[in-house]
């Protein structure tokens, strides 16, 4: 499968991200993503033009997403790349990629990124990752809840911060 992508054999659609173009196969994209499948089987502009413009991801993210779609592998992305890839996986409903991203984010979880990862988990409705981050914040509550990052997070995302505090209270009661 990687050879099909790398050598651009019989490609029938192009994903365009700015000036970058990524030739691909509708069948493979549709098999891995219900969103792509719907795009390519319905009467949409993408079907007629054989092109899909992606404006909410960068070229590196789309390249990594395609590599995963074709090979089921990720090439050791850094934290920021994983967050962008998680967004793309969620948007195109590539659930196995979304799960891998969550596992990578979980392994990278630390006091300085806990709020950001919690927000990401909430935005992408990833309850497993959200629970993991809540557990982490509960475990390291003193430094995290006293940090400037938490104070800012609490002001901007009051309801989510409340959920975390409720989680911590419930954990202490057990």
UniProtKB/TrEMBL annotation:
It comes from the Eukaryota. Gene3D superfamilies: 1.25.40.420, Potassium Channel Kv1.1, Chain A. PANTHER family: SPECKLE-TYPE POZ PROTEIN (PTHR24413). This is TD and POZ domain-containing protein 5. The gene is Tdpoz5. InterPro entries: BTB/POZ_dom, SKP1/BTB/POZ_sf. Residues 11-78 form the BTB domain. It comes from Caerostris extrusa.
